[in-house]
Amino acid sequence: MRVDVVFTPDEAGAAPTGIVIDVIRATSTICQALVSGYKTVFCAADVDEARALRDALGEGVLGGERNAVRIPGFDLGNSPREYLELIAETLVLSTTNGTRAVVAAAGRCERVLIASLLNLSAVVEAARDAGDDVLVVCAGVQGTLALDDAFVAGRIVELLGCERTDAADAAARLTTTWTDAEEAFRASKSGRNLMENAPELEADIPFCARESVLDVVPRLVGMRAGAAEITP
Ligand code: MLT
Predict the structure, then answer these.
(1) Which residue's C-alpha comes closest to atom 8 of ligand 1?
(2) What is the β-pairing status of strands 17-21 and 111-115?
(3) How many Å lie between the centroid of ligand 1 and the Cα of residue 136?
(4) Other CB atoms closer than 10 Å to residue 67's CB: what's the count?
(5) 24 Cα to the center of ligand 1, angstroms
(6) Using a 6 Å CB cutoff, which residues line ligand 1?
(7) Of 40, 66, 157, 189, which sits 20 to 30 A from 78 (CA to CA)?
(8) Cα–ligand 1 centroid distance for 19 (angstroms)
(9) What is the pLDDT along the chain (232 residues), one digit of tens a residue?
(10) Atom number in ligand 1 closest to CA 193
């Protein structure tokens, strides 16, 4: 078993198992929503696509952000703390980088799992049980590496404990640079974007920096109108 890491979704890399990370905040939100009782999360790359899908479904919560702020007309934003309470069975989510990364991974991996720090142990165990090579796909920020996702990728590499590519080794080595996840997240472009654009949501950073507190492995089960369908 071998693990590789791409720091942006457009980088070359392939493996049967893909693990997608956008820890601040899309994949943390997906994990929290499914633990709170949402049955399905649809990840839509575009805002119009998300609106059209929710209309076609005839029910569900429309959630997401652009520049960290709730999209006009949407029911909820992209703070995982907004998903502690269940208000519908379905969530249609569109975010700047994270939902696009999920859709990209769906096109290149046989099996797609969703990771955050919140469900770290559960997702690592699922990948190990699958037994195949792993590609960790970081969402990054608009086509560039983001330290928060790289940190979580490194924790996955460390816990998997299998053969590593150079990129996977680099991610694992990065994790020793900070005293803890929250420090890494605050130092990252994603963390800084959140604090600059939505300072009232700064508490999302320590919320997302808790490790292995949710026992959930969100996985891709299909595509619908261009959106990736994720269930627990
Ligand atoms: C994204 O998809 O880029 C993020 O989740 C942004 C955020 O909401 O902080």
Answers:
(1) 68
(2) parallel
(3) 18
(4) 11
(5) 6
(6) 22, 24-26, 65, 68, 78, 95-98, 190, 194
(7) 157
(8) 17
(9) 999 999 999 999 999 999 999 999 999 999 999 999 999 999 999 999 999 999 999 999 999 999 999 999 999 999 999 999 999 999 999 999 999 999 999 999 999 999 999 999 999 999 999 999 999 999 999 999 999 999 999 999 999 999 999 999 999 999 999 999 999 999 999 999 999 999 999 999 999 999 999 999 999 999 999 999 999 9
(10) 9
C-alpha–C-alpha distance, residues 9 and 138, integer Å: 6
Burial 192-225 (b: 16+ CB within 10 A, else e): bbbeeebeebeebbebbbeeeebebbbebeeeee
Question: How many Å lie between the centroid of ligand 1 and the Cα of residue 97?
Answer: 6
DSSP 141: B
CA dist 219 and 16 (Å) reads 13
pTM of the predicted protein model: 0.98
Give 131 Cα–ligand 1 centroid separation in angstroms: 30
184 contact partners, CB below 8 Å, separation of at least 6:
147, 148, 151, 175, 177, 178
What is the separation of C-alpha 204 from the centre of its chain, rounded to a whole number of angstroms? 14
Ligand 1 atom closest to the Cα of residue 99 is 2
Atom of ligand 1 nearest to the CA of 25: 5
